[in-house]
Amino acid sequence: MAKGFIAAVFLAAGLAGCGGGMTNTPYDTRTDKEGHLPPGEGMFGSAFSAEWVRRDPGAKPEAPAMTAAEQEDFKKWQESATPEQRKEFEDWRAWQEQQKKNPK
Question: What is the rounded CA–CA span in Å between residue 100 and residue 84?
Fold first, then answer.
């Protein structure tokens, strides 16, 4: 049983290409310390470069401004809306403002 397991391990290693020096393909031995690797190559690529920009955690995204057409549509809706619809909208708007002031 043990001999069969060992044989299977060697067979799997051979099929996986763990033959060490058995391959004839050259491999790159340059390191980043030698300064030969161009930016963006290597183990992490450009993941740890100065291209990362940290956002201000306190900054809040700006709401997009309403266009003139949207403002006109909103005014038409306000004039034609029923009191129940206006009340629902005002409640929703108050809830949004409360969520902005008290984020979780």
Answer: 24
Residue 11: both structure tokens together: 């067979």
pTM of the complete model:
0.34
Structure tokens at 17: 């290409």
- Per-position pLDDT tens, the chain of length 104: 788 888 888 877 776 665 555 555 666 665 556 666 666 666 666 566 565 566 777 777 777 788 888 889 888 888 888 889 889 988 998 999 998 888 77
Burial class (CB in 10 A: 0-12, 13-18, 19+), 89: middle
Residue-range domain boundaries for the chain: 68-104
Provide the 3-class DSSP secondary structure of residue 37. coil
How far, rounded to the nearest angstrom, does the alpha carbon of residue 30 sit from its chain's CA centroid?
31
